[in-house]
Amino acid sequence: MALVKEIYRDNRRIVVIGTALVIGSALANIATINFINETIATLGRYFIDHGATLIVLLVASFVFGVASQWMMTALSYRIIYQLRGRLLRQVLQTEFEHINDLGKGKIYAALTKDIRNIQEGFVIFPFFVHGVTLVLGGIGYMLWLSWPLALLCCSGFALTIAVGRILTGRFQQLVRHDRELEDSLFQQYGRILDGHKELLLNERRGRLVYRTLMDGAARHSRMLRTLADRYIVVNLHMMTVVTLGLVGLVFWAVYRWQWGDVALGAAFALVLLFVRQPINMAMNQVPGILAARVSLQKLASLGLPEPNDLDYAQPLCADWATVDLREVSYRYPGSAAFALGPLDLTVKKGELIFVVGHNGAGKS
């Protein structure tokens, strides 16, 4: 969450403008739906009197929609560029022992798998926001038409969302388990590349390594992702069916409970059919956004230090004569078995120094 706040702080102006354009696009779309409803209610007279308004609304919807998507997708790629540079600076400024404890597999997975997931998540997030904004605008319009029918529809959506949260929660849990397997897979990939020469000479050993990888982490990863995607498929089609079912429920309320006339029922049906597409658009983006969230959590769990500027504040003087070290000390993190220092040392320019000591003596 701290990383997301930092990203927002660095790009606040673009986020605000992009959000305003998304809201403008949603309002233009809702106004177009209202124009169509008024035309139906007046048997076409409203269209004859205000036909030019429809053209203005369509142009506004197109301009706002395209501008918002352009700005938000450009922002997404800008954020990924910033995030990739941030992660590289963190790796460069992390203590060697911590990198060694993490293992190359986790670092490779973070620089490739996590960055890719986060990139995809940020790229599709504007489409998710656009879809959600259209849905919220449609709900607001239904409340303006008839709050009893709107509350009936909102109850159906709320129940579906509650079930969907359970399904997406299970999906995210499986994706998190799969992400843990990625570290093991990358670690084994590295070992195969490091030992490629030996494995090439020993085919039996090579087959054993292959079977161990494919029957272990790779197979488990496939099973986890297959099961996770099933939850998303159920969630997506459930929301689609519920949206269509609400159309029938609205007409039932109009005819059976006398909650309105046929024109009102038709207006609600038109709005529900309109929000069906943005609902599907938003639901299709959920897997990528959740995977990006898991990757962000994975990056945070690496325990890398906050990055500093790699540029030196003051350049090294060209005519330096000596380097003085005073009270230099070092202790291995998490271990009190070895400590170096405090050490005082003066090195003159051009002086040749040999550091002698056995393995583990602290020469590095």
UniProtKB/TrEMBL annotation:
- Keyword Transmembrane assigned to the entry: answer is yes
Question: Where, subcellularly, is it found?
Answer: Cell membrane
Report the GO molecular function annotations.
Answer: ABC-type oligopeptide transporter activity; ATP binding
Q: Name one GO cellular component term.
A: plasma membrane
SUPFAM superfamilies associated with the record = ABC transporter transmembrane region, P-loop containing nucleoside triphosphate hydrolases
The membrane topology term of the UniProt record is: Multi-pass membrane protein
Which Gene3D superfamilies does this UniProt record tie to the protein?
Answer: ABC transporter type 1, transmembrane domain (1.20.1560.10), P-loop containing nucleotide triphosphate hydrolases (3.40.50.300)
* Record keyword Transmembrane helix present: yes
Q: Where are the transmembrane segments?
A: 14-36, 56-80, 122-143, 149-167, 231-251, 257-275
Any Pfam family hit: ABC_membrane
Question: Principal place where this protein is found?
Answer: membrane
Name all ABC transmembrane type-1 domain ranges: 16-291
List UniProt keywords, sorted A-Z: Membrane, Transmembrane, Transmembrane helix
Protein name in the entry: ABC transmembrane type-1 domain-containing protein
